């Protein structure tokens, strides 16, 4: 197991990465904004190099995320997909979950209510119901929800 902890100079954001093949879990803490996004991108891309099948981003301790933070998540997902790695988001707090919903990114990412569910969820093509992850051709495994607010 590889475990690292890093914080930016302002300590507004930090992450803890744990690599346990075949997956890597990265717990993000604090604010993901224009000030912290560049360092976060570098660290997440580094964590991606240690992943084999699955990268789970635990968002349970993220208190704020702006458009630059969303851009980092999208960039990491695109690079992961190109390498055959699945990215899942776990346990976003209500403000972050709302941002993902309003921007439609809750359909581009597999968003799970808990870290445990993100780790045990089945991949597309496996039985046991629908998946919210994209298939290899980029088509979502679930239909778009109605415009209800997340719980």
| Global geometry | globular
What structural class is derived from the secondary structure elements?
alpha/beta
Strand % is 25-35%
The name of the CATH superfamily reads: STAS domain
Residues in helix, %? 25-40%
The total domain count is: 1
Order of helices and strands: EEEHEHEHHEH
Uncertain runs: 1-10, 124-148
Q: For the record, what CATH class applies?
A: Alpha Beta
Q: What is the count of β-strands?
A: 6
Cα-based radius of gyration, to the nearest Å: 15 Å
What about the largest sheet?
A: 6 strands, mixed
Q: Would you identify the CATH architecture?
A: 2-Layer Sandwich
Question: How confident is the prediction overall: mean pLDDT?
Answer: 80
* Topology-level CATH name: Transcription Regulator spoIIAA
Number of DSSP helical runs: 5
- Cα(first) to Cα(last) distance is 35 Å
Which strand order does the major sheet show?
Answer: 1-2-3-4-5-6
């Amino acid at each position: 197991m590889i475990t690292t902890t890093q914080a930016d100079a302002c300590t507004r954001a930090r992450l803890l990465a744990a690599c346990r093949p075949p997956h890597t879990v990265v717990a993000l803490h604090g604010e993901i904004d224009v000030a912290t996004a560049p360092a976060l991108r570098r660290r997440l891309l580094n964590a991606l190099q240690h992943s084999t099948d699955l990268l789970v981003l635990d968002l349970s301790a993220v208190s704020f995320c702006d458009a630059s933070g969303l851009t980092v998540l999208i960039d990491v997902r695109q690079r992961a997909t190109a390498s055959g790695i699945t990215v899942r988001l776990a346990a976003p707090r209500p403000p972050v979950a709302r941002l993902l919903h309003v921007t439609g990114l809750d359909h581009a990412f597999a968003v799970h209510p808990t870290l445990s569910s993100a780790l045990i969820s089945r991949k597309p093509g496996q039985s046991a119901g629908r998946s919210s992850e994209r298939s290899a051709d980029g088509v979502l495994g679930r239909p778009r929800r109605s415009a209800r607010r997340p719980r």
